[in-house]
Amino acid sequence: MLKTWLAHPLTRGLDIDDPQTTHLRLQIIQKKGFLRQIYYEWYQAIVDALPLGDGAVLEIGAGGGFMSEFIPGLITSELFYCPNVRAVIDGLRLPFGSQSLRGVVMTNVLHHLPQPRLFFAEATRCVRPGGVVAMIEPWVSSWSRFVYTRLHHEPFEPETLSWELPTSGPLSGANDALPWIIFVRDRLKFEREFPQWRKLKMP
After folding, report:
1. Is 134:105 a contact under the CB 8 Å cutoff?
2. b/e map of 98-116 (b: 16 or more CB within 10 Å)?
3. Which of 64, 79, 169, 177 lies 20 to 30 Å from 18, alpha-carbon distance?
4. pLDDT band at 2 (very low <50, low <70, confident <90, very high)
5. What values do phi and psi take at 127, rounded to 5?
């Protein structure tokens, strides 16, 4: 009941997997000054992580954001059609040539990917040497455990053994603890499987 009450009026009762819900979330972010400022800070941190120089940058899961205001020529993509994206792309099957990208960026996306190993394999193939994968993701802390288990609509399962998610919709399938699982709890496993991404920087 509390989670339903906390939902924004524009999206309350809507199917989270409906593309219209994603588009409405963009409107919510743009209208709320405090929330928009948080996104400003996130996007600036991502920009700062990108290597200088030419080369395409791909954003995965761009339907609810406005990162293109920060990165000129950004290839915005989403798993389904949204008015503000340039391409409909599955992040597990990137339609780009080998070493063709300067970077892949995303905000609140990794914890929705049903098979994160496929994403990292594709990023390894598509991102050129010296390029980056930069992301903003949920984390596991005492405070986040309280919020995610009581006030948030997405699953939060830091004890799960698997990186994979159950088959579900593009947004209803999630584990908010997944980034922490991969990059902290299972970091050695991640580094063994994807040695190209051993240089991890976390705030």
Report:
1. yes
2. eeebbbbbbbbbbbbbbeb
3. 177
4. very low
5. -85, 135
Check residue 150 and give left, alpha or beta (phi > 0: left; psi -120 to 50: alpha).
alpha
Nearest Cα neighbor of 177 from 148, 156, 150 is 156
Identify the sign of the CA torsion 30, 108, 5, 21.
positive
Distance CA 118, CA 137 (A): 18
- Per-residue model confidence as pLDDT tens digits over 74-115: 999 999 998 889 999 999 999 999 999 999 999 999 999 999
Q: In what order do the strands lie in the sheet with 75-78?
A: 87-88, 75-78, 56-60, 101-107, 127-136
CA 53/CA 69 separation, integer angstroms: 18
| Burial call 52-66: b when 16+ CB within 10 Å, e when fewer | eeebebbbbbbbbbb
Q: What is the pTM of this model?
A: 0.89
Domains of the chain: 2-197 (3.40.50)
